Amino acid sequence: MIHGYAAQAPSAKLEPFDYEPGILGDEDVEIQVEYCGICHSDLSMLDNEWGMTQYPFVPGHEVIGTIATIGNAVKKLQVGQRVGLGWYSRSCMTCEWCVSGDRNLCQTAEQTIVGRHGGFADRVRAHEGWVIPLPAGLDPSSSGPLFCGGITVFNPIVQFNIKPTDRVGVLGIGGLGHMALGFLKAWGCDVTAFSTTPDKEPEARALGATHFINSRDPEAISKAANSFDLILSTVAADLDWGTYIAMLRPKGRLHFVGVVPNPISSLVFPLISGQKSISGSPLGSPATIAQMLEFTNRHNFEPMVEEFPFEQVNEAIAKLRTGSPRYRIVLKY
Q: The whole model's pTM is what?
């Protein structure tokens, strides 16, 4: 029996919930949960914003724990090993994307909190291919957010071959953006933080920003034209995207990892004349997650987290709703 916390309806309070997981699959593992981060995607699923939540709903996809049980065919993981689990919990392993290593692009990939119960529980299950060993040097209490928010902003750095000499802007200094600043600084880039909150400037610089721009300052925005090789948007708000496209250097890219509410609009001519791109990406493959963890360990980087005991999960969710965490919330079992 697995003991967790579930909502019975959209936006409902999470309450104790027990379920029988059935027989463990041959290639699956069961993780004893130690910590689980709370992501805005948990909130979106809890509220059924995307129209695909099934209730009772157990959130949680930033899991850190130790392997309690392994299936008969599991080869690479061992009982007692500390691991992490993120947004994906399984992929088909046979399609062209899985075979090429891009398992995160598998069209039938299973998502940890979609149609199944997630990590707000004492145990959670997943296919061994998506359960990643945690390097010994990483703090398990703060590593959970790396498995969703962290890999979301690290993945484009790898996918687009970002160079240490590149100039990168990060829109939004929150749960995703603060990790992007740390990664990009360690990567060697010249990093500019964009925020509508001027009092975040000292912290943004401490996190890795070389420069800071108040997004509501027209003069500062104007001066930043033709400045960036990459602008990484982590925000969930509609902005004047033409203004940010104008900030790109030739061959520059405006890349989305935050989900904005409405369609993105742009004139085509600035894209053609500067050979600029607009793109987006999901979380990374297991290989990229492992690369991110090694990079994080080597550079002594960790997300900034606030910790709550699992029994206070509803208080933690209420704090996330207000947008007040700086910058991620982690539940401890």
A: 0.95
Domain match, 101 and 162 both: no
Residues 227/210, Cβ–Cβ less than 8 Å: no
Contact 298, 163 (CB under 8 A): no
Locate the DSSP E strands across the chain: 2-6, 15-19, 28-38, 63-70, 82-85, 88-90, 110-111, 123-127, 132-133, 167-171, 190-195, 211-214, 228-233, 248-256, 277-280, 305-309, 328-332
Tell me if 86 sits within 8 A of 62, measured CB to CB: yes
What pLDDT digit, counting tens, does each position of 170-208 carry? 999 999 999 999 999 999 999 999 999 888 899 999 999
Give the separation between CA 293 and CA 137, rounded to whole angstroms.
Answer: 10
Pairing of strands 228-233, 248-256: parallel
Q: Do 133 and 232 fall into the same domain?
A: no
pLDDT in tens, 64-99: 999 999 999 999 999 999 999 999 999 999 999 999
Find residue 127's DSSP bridge partners. Answer: 28
115: left (phi over 0), alpha (psi -120 to 50) or beta: left
Answer yes or no: do 170 and 245 share one domain: yes
Task: Identify which of 331, 289, 272 has the alpha carbon closest to the alpha carbon of residue 306.
Answer: 331
The CATH number that applies at residue 11 is 3.90.180.10
For residues 135 and 85, membership in a common domain is answered with yes
